[in-house]
Amino acid sequence: MKNIAALILIISLSSFTKSGHKPSEEVTNYYGTSDIITFNKADFKLSWSSHPNAVYYKHEYLPKGDIADHFIDMVLLDFVQGDFSAKDALSAQVKTILERKKTDAVCNYQVNQSPDGKQFILDFLMSQSSGNKIELLEWSAYHYKEYTDKAGHKGVLMLGVSHRAYRDGTTALITNLSEFRKENIKALIGIPFPEIQVR
Q: Could you tell me the superkingdom of the organism this chain comes from (predicted)?
């Protein structure tokens, strides 16, 4: 429980809960990996990064044409250094989702576990509304695994994807969500985790 409490303080929920980033912000590659991640046959380029505290690193990747404050698709690569398990990271994220559910009627989640019990995929749905009308719908899937880089930095690596629909487009996403989830979770599982080396 102590690890989970610490992770809740460290990890933000997702891109959904923060404001957009300015294009002029300097982007630092903290992992020493390629600036490009390919997902669903599309290339996503490193567009924003952050090292907000001593143990937490965040990368966001966008396809050409998308902007951070009004994106359609995003790939995320986060690393939390420390004596945490993948299950700790999963539990911390679930707790933040449960908190959001108190004020977001659409918010929901599902967890899938690998056969060996060492990796987890959490997918979840969140919304923003104006009155009774949904203005923004975001579906995300986070793939967690324990990771140690070549320098011995141990922690949890998270590779995730987020997809947004706005206003009139939210109905189509809800209608097709079941098939959309299956296809995108399958694609996420198919992406090899990058071999990161934290700086």
A: Bacteria
CB of 112 within 8 A of CB of 91?
A: no
- Is 195 contained in some domain? no
When divided into structural domains, the chain yields a total of 1
Alpha-carbon 162 to chain mean position? 6
In Å, what is the CA distance from 51 to each residue of 48, 58, 138? 11, 6, 24
* Chain segment 51-100, per-residue pLDDT in tens: 988 899 999 999 998 888 889 999 999 999 999 899 999 999 999 999 99
Which of 146, 17, 139 minimizes the C-alpha distance to 89?
146
Query: Residue 166's domain spans which residues?
Result: 2-189
Stretch (H or E) spanning 124: strand 119-130
Check if the beta carbon of residue 44 is closer than 8 Å to that of residue 53.
no
Distance (Å, whole) CA 124 – CA 133: 20
Where does the pLDDT of residue 8 fall: very low under 50, low under 70, confident under 90, or very high at 90 and above? low
* Rounded Cα gap, residues 1 and 37, in angstroms: 34
pLDDT tens for residues 130-143? 888 999 999 999 99
Inside any domain, residue 196 = no
* Residue 108 token pair: 């929901």
DSSP β-ladder status, 36-39 and 154-166: unpaired
N- to C-terminal Cα separation, the chain: 29
